[in-house]
């Protein structure tokens, strides 16, 4: 694509892209003559990654340059994980409260979720807005879940691919039961041993730790099970 098309697709100015090229943050494009450069589609992803690292992680270009170099050596699985981690696990986001959004229209615009799926997710209790001053207010968690639903559909985990999205509802219900059991144990152990403020502080810390535990144990077990199933499938094909 031409430079102008790259500008249109990324929303980054010509001057900024040329600056990235001079600083070595972006690789030099392929030349089609002395004054004509050809930018592949991967330049769009690279520029979006640079913007994300600058806007959400506040990293200097010198650090971003090294990250971009390392991305070239990642497998597709590792690169996808990096993109998700960069989007949903910003270190600054752990220190600051992320902005809520008000109303369905703003939520749909921010997440990219289709209106029908917002209604379904609300019906299933996966996304649940609070009501403040008569308006629907979606939390940062709701926003992240909406974005993840869009991402799942994009990579091939949507209804058009034969994936039943209602499993998300079942997983939510099962997880809710697990969390209820954990909280019951937690409250019984601490009740009467801590003040209300201490109880709340420990509770929120435990909540964050268990959230990370669920994330990493799911990722570990899913990775192991996926490799096992792939090996079994290809081994069965080899026997035929």
UniProtKB/TrEMBL annotation:
InterPro entries: DNA-bd_dom_put_sf (IPR009061), MerR-type_HTH_dom (IPR000551). Residues 1-71 form the HTH merR-type domain. GO terms for molecular function: DNA binding. It holds the Pfam family MerR_1. GO terms for biological process: regulation of DNA-templated transcription. Gene3D superfamilies: 1.10.1660.10. SMART domains: HTH_MERR. This is Transcriptional regulator, MerR family. It comes from Desulfatibacillum aliphaticivorans.
């Amino acid at each position: 694509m031409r430079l102008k098309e790259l500008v249109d697709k990324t929303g980054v100015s010509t001057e900024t892209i040329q600056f990235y090229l001079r600083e070595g943050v972006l690789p030099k494009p392929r030349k089609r003559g002395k004054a004509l450069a050809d930018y592949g589609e991967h330049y769009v992803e690279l520029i979006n990654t640079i913007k994300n690292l600058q806007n959400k992680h506040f990293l200097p270009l010198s650090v971003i340059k090294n990250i971009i170099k390392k991305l070239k050596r990642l497998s597709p699985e590792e690169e996808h994980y990096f993109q998700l981690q960069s989007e949903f696990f910003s270190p600054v986001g752990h220190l600051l409260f992320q902005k809520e959004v008000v109303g369905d229209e703003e939520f749909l615009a921010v997440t990219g979720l289709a209106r029908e799926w917002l209604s379904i997710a609300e019906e299933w209790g996966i996304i649940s807005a609070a009501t403040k001053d008569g308006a629907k207010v979606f939390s940062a968690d709701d926003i992240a879940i909406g974005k993840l639903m869009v991402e799942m559909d994009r990579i091939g985990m949507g209804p058009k691919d034969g994936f039943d999205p209602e499993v998300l509802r079942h997983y939510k219900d099962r997880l809710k039961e697990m969390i209820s059991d954990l909280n019951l144990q937690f409250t019984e152990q601490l009740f009467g041993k801590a003040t209300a403020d201490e109880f709340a502080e420990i509770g929120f810390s435990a909540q964050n730790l268990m959230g990370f535990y669920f994330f990493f144990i799911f990722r570990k077990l899913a990775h192991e099970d996926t490799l096992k199933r792939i090996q079994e499938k290809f081994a069965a094909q080899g026997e035929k």
